[in-house]
Amino acid sequence: MDADMAVNPDDNRFDEGISCIKAGKIDRAIEIFSDLVEKDERNHRAWNAYGVALSQTNQKDRAIHCFEHAILLDPGNKVYERNLSRIKTPPAKRTLSKMKELTPNKRGRLGVVAGIGIVILIVLICLTYLSLSGMIPYPLPKEGVISSTEAPIEPSPSLPTPRDNISIAPEPEQKSVIPELKPQPPLKPETRIHFIDVSQGDAALIQSDGKNLLIDAGPVNSGQRLVEYLKKQNVTTLDMVIASHPYDDHIGGMIDVLDAFDVKKYADNGVVHSSDLYKKVIAAVISDQAVRMIVTAGMKIPFTNNTIIDVIGPYRLTGHPDEDSLVLKVSIGNISLILPGDSSEVRNKATILKLPDHGSDDAIGPLMNVRPQVSIISLGSGNPFGYPRSATLETIQEIGSQVYRTDVNGSIVFQTDGENWTAQTVR
């Protein structure tokens, strides 16, 4: 990304164009990026952004040209290639269902069957009329003879002949015994929660009903490690990525993630940060054409039917990125999980708590409020901050919580059906 930034002769103009796309001022964005590529025809970032702006209009051919030009200048760029593929591939049109396709044929067959039935009915009526009128002889059974297609059955000599005052009780009807099938309870869908070892940082993956949601992406130097871990979990698409707050140890690996996967939605708290890393991440989100969502306390983040995500903080912004972190509560049936970023303002109850600030003293208050069954500490081995602090570990022991640490256990994977949970560690 640093090389990309060096190609651009006018960062301020580029950032202004990106802001225009975000604000829906597409015409202004097109004007800015048109000027930038005119000044420097080798500015592949501007060509790509130009294509993104044009793709928001009906100028599809011009957008394709821009993406192709960007790829020509920077061959192998996955973002540019994905943008080109998306605009060239129109959304699949819905086809009529098989039931609708077969409807005319069904009507035809029904008409034929109905016609045959009417003919048979007419024939039967005619035969009945002719029989009753005597025109067709109808054989009547002789007295004491049972009419049947089989040979006549003679009465058995060993049985008494029935008389008016004698009744023969019919034999009890034999009922076939069909074993009762007891309905089997359906298997409960399971949700997997991965607390990924990204050294001194945070990253968590939630997998439910075939969908994938990533919360934070660790530091810059762990970006590729995170990508490799996600690929091992068969992740190809991230339905949503959430950044709790814009500090490097939480969004550092985002650019690698955006380059490696198709990210459909990106959510954050909307607080603008002055760091170059933050600016690059937001630019990458827009360039990747992911839908950006600004979420605040009180909102529900749509994910799956059995995995509910509520934003429970912050209710007010303090101006400090740690305390302004998004605080998320994930509920799967009777099992719940709180991921507070680095915020110490956590008061809700939960089964599992990811400790804020990597086990610093700021985690003591949330531990006492939540009193979780399980405490997760995400941190790097031998970190320079002395985390986790001894007071935090003592509090975990005091409340009787089970503790997992990424510096000791590696990645930790929880699996739950909403009633019970299991955990395993992966090195």
UniProtKB/TrEMBL annotation:
InterPro entries hit by this protein: ComA-like_MBL, Competence_DNA_uptake, Metallo-B-lactamas, RibonucZ/Hydroxyglut_hydro, TPR-like_helical_dom_sf, TPR_2, TPR_rpt
Keyword list, A-Z: Hydrolase, Membrane, Repeat, TPR repeat, Transmembrane, Transmembrane helix
Transmembrane segments: 110-132
Gene3D superfamilies membership: Ribonuclease Z/Hydroxyacylglutathione hydrolase-like (3.60.15.10), Tetratricopeptide repeat domain (1.25.40.10)
Listed CDD domains: ComA-like_MBL-fold (cd07731)
Top-level taxon in the UniProt lineage: Archaea
One Pfam family hit: TPR_2
TPR repeats: 44-77
Coiled coil: none
MF-aspect GO terms: hydrolase activity
Residue ranges constituting the Metallo-beta-lactamase domain according to the UniProt record: 197-353
Protein name: MBL fold metallo-hydrolase
